[in-house]
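Example (one chain per record):
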Amino acid sequence: MEKLTFEEASARMRLSRNTVWRLAEKGARKPAKAIVEGKEILISHE
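Predicted structure:
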């Protein structure tokens, strides 16, 4: 995984910095919620 700033990631993905931030926030919130609620977390590589 590359460690990019939100500015670098947004430039690569051609998205606004705010959109990249929202995606990262959502991506961090989902597994945290699953852990707190005792739900199963599945990780797959397609």
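Caption: Residues 17-36 form the longest helix (20 residues).
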